[in-house]
Amino acid sequence: MDNNYNKLINNLEKLNLSTVKNYVNSYIDKHNRNEIDFVDALYELTSLELKFKKERSDRAVITVAHFPFIKKFEDFDFSFQPDINKQQILDLKYLRFIDENENIMFIGMPGVGKTHLSVSIGIEAAVNGKSTYFISCNDLCLQLKKAKLENRLEQRLKHFTSYAVLIIDEVGYLPMDMEASNLLFQLISKRYERKSTIVTSNKPLNKWHEIFGDAVLANAILDRLLHHSKVFTINGPSYRTKDYFLSEN
Ligand SMILES: Nc1ncnc2c1ncn2[C@@H]1O[C@H](COP(=O)(O)OP(=O)(O)O)[C@@H](O)[C@H]1O
Ligand SMILES: [Mg+2]
Asked: Could you give the dihedral angle defined by the CA atoms of residues 237, 243, 248 and 249, in that order, rounded to the nearest 10 degrees?
């Protein structure tokens, strides 16, 4: 039927206003019952549409960022790691470190929440329009090595340099050969003072020469990472084994 109601629905479809389309009937009814005036109805409908679109784009950027799991700051039990300065961590939500091109490092034994906190920061960055990517150090090095073999290293370095926030997880879990260390150094150098890099490691900084098998390279990498950075050393217990130890007592 070619009436204006049908044309309205058609327009909403063409404008891609699916949420307005879903709710428009209930708002017409409300309006007819004199429960809502025209401006309020339009305002509420458009607000619902914006909310829906924001949620959809949040999901999309979170998918693109390639996080291993979705954990937010609210999911982190700070009372379990009393050594961590909670306020300093929560301040990272405001993403000032991105504007300052600062790096963040989480150092600590497995299970203390390094990846969790990195992901929480990454989610915040991603949903606030900062391009964000999560990758393990091992995968990153494999990708760079492969690119080098295929004569497209520059391109790949450029790609990883382009992210506003790059999370490099698990630096030092596996030993790195000279080539991998060198490639990581190149990437860190390119991002230095231009972009923010978040690094997690189970190795204290004074043992980093063991990761790279070369003290000079280890120092060069650390130098650039640490120059403008916030370092969080988490000394507490592993959250993964907390129930095991609790039940032992
Ligand atoms: N303080 C905490 N509060 C809530 N969950 C935590 C906490 N610390 C760690 N976890 C959870 O325990 C698991 C291991 O943490 P993870 O961040 O992967 O440890 P790490 O990267 O330091 O090895 C994850 O599922 C994480 O969400
Ligand atoms: Mg981890």
From this structure: 70
